[in-house]
Amino acid sequence: xxxxxxxxxxxxxxxxxxxxxxxxxxxxxxxxxxxxxxxxxxxxxxxxxxxxxxxxxxxxxxxxxxxxxxxxxxxxxxxxxxxxxxxxxxxxxxxxxxxxxxxxxxxxxxxxxxxxxxxxxxxxxxxxxxxxxxxxxxxxxxxxxxxxxxxxxxxxxxxxxxxxxxxxxxxxxxxxxxxxxxxxxxxxxxxxxxxxxxxxxxxxxxxxxxxxxxxxxxxxxxxxxxxxxxxxxxxxxxxxxxxxxxxxxxxxxxxxxx
Length: 258
Hints:
The protein folds into two domains: 4-198, Alpha-Beta Complex (2-enoyl-CoA Hydratase, Chain A, domain 1), CATH 3.90.226.10; 202-248, Lyase 2-enoyl-coa Hydratase, Chain  A, domain 2 (Orthogonal Bundle). The strands form two sheets. Strands 1-2-3-5-7-10 form a six-stranded mixed beta sheet, with helices on both faces. It has a four-stranded mixed beta sheet with strand order 4-6-8-9. Helix content is 47%, strand content 17%. The chain has eleven helices and ten strands. The protein is globular and about 65 Å long. The chain has 258 residues and is an alpha/beta fold. Helix 1 packs parallel to helix 3, helix 4 (109-115) crosses helix 5 (143-151) and helix 5 crosses helix 6 (153-162).
């Protein structure tokens, strides 16, 4: 891969968008690599989860690569938009949790990439925005859909229609990020959170994510029935038997992910 770095340590993946000279902007090659990498990671059952970040201390991802888009016609624009959706959908579809470690600018496509993560932790210098209207276009990698589902339509439309940037504290206030930490503590904080997740039942972690993601697309009654079905699936697992037995025996459970 020319634009991404991937390390796996203690079953925790660290994926870094590695284009610091362009503030990690998402060009077509980077999106192709991102889709391929997350489809590959999805096959690793032993993986606890993935932390996704950007290289350097200025940007998570500053946006899509405008120089790549400048001369697109309608067909090229549609191809690029669909590529972006495939790549970000591959991030969102990873069975294990994805924590976005947002270390600076997360604008346009970068904000949309953060939205594709399950949990977002940002550094104090992080900035967020969907400034596409300043370029005469709209968010094209899922921002018009994921952002209002996360922060509500009013907040989402304010960000999209004004093109304003917000700082880390405001992003936390509106629910765009889970919490704000010091920049030099960002990766360690995310690793610590992922290690805590790794101590839980792996099957239950995956089913929690599936229940939330699928249920958000259903009405409440259907979603609750779906949850009940997934809850019942847990009782066919060795993890459920071990987890409840360990609780009653007042010891730490030893999960196997089955």
